[in-house]
Design brief:
Two copies of one chain form a homodimer.
Chain A lengths: L7 H12 L6 H8 L8 H13 L4 E3 L7 E3 L6 E5 L5 E4 L3 H14 L2 E14 L6
Parallel strand pairs in A: 3-5
Antiparallel strand pairs in A: 1-2, 3-4
Helix pairs in contact in A: 1-3, 2-3
The first copy, chain A, binds a DNA duplex (30 and 30 nucleotides) through helix 1 and helix 3.
DNA sequence: ATAATTATAGTAATCATTATCGTTATTATG
DNA sequence: CATAATAACGATAATGATTACTATAATTAT
């Protein structure tokens, strides 16, 4: 299980994710990491992004249009996608509130519920959202 | 805008979506509609599913793995994806609760929020979820 | 130092989805 | 009703995102 070797590429990808509030796609990460590792392969970026997500050191976000996005912030929070510019923003809410949502869902669902994600749709302030 | 013509294929797709509680992918819809229209094209299925979604007569659901899914139920509700079998289930909650979520998000977000989706992760009762 | 093993770069392959285009179905009009 | 106008279709090619493959390089263990 712990048969995992260090790699500078993976470290750079994790570092980059931690340093930005954007929610870059794999391709955006690729273009950025390329500045430090000009020969890095897009496949390496995908492999490491998924590795980080599997290890809980990053979060994968699926939006209805465009490719998946990645978030280096691993404390539970929601996201807002701007319907005008398409950017994705963090939306921190009280974690107790999120936990209550899980419990509510667990009550209503015939089975068990452990976690959830939420994606809000709106207009960011740059695009005129009041 | 209303330059929309009737088509038997689209009617059949809408009928199928309305008749099932599953949340089929475009490919699943294709395989099913094919029984009635053996020559229907996958492109036609995609085009009509997106048309229905744009008109508000169906809902497109993005999950982190696999293709998008479609839901003929258009009253606002959440979804639960079973982490064991991968099926997607409806989770109806009081609409007032969903509206409160929007208002809460609107308060915290620097911009405006109009709607949201939520995807819960759990284990369905067929897979042993208590 | 060297053996063992994981990660990489480069590239091909796959999967989901959309675009193109000549033909067909539906609707509007004379 | 006949036919013109137009949207939808089926077939297929093209695209975009992601994964798989493989020989080489980097990391870790002996």
């Amino acid at each position: 299980m712990a048969n995992l070797k260090y790699s500078r590429q993976r470290a750079a990808i994790k570092e980059y994710l931690s340093s930005t509030l954007d929610h870059p796609t794999a391709d955006t990460v690729y273009l950025h990491i390329r500045e430090e590792f000009p020969n890095i392969s897009l496949g390496t970026v995908y492999r490491n992004l998924n590795l980080l997500a599997d290890m809980g050191e990053a979060v994968k976000i699926s939006t209805p249009d465009g490719g998946d996005r990645f978030d280096g912030c691993t404390v539970p929070h929601y996201h807002v996608v701007c319907q005008s510019c398409g950017r994705v923003f963090d939306l921190k809410v009280d974690e107790r509130y999120m936990q209550e949502m899980n419990e509510l869902a667990d009550q209503y669902f015939e089975g068990s519920v452990a976690a959830h994600t939420a994606l809000f749709y709106g207009i960011c302030k740059d695009c005129g959202g009041s």
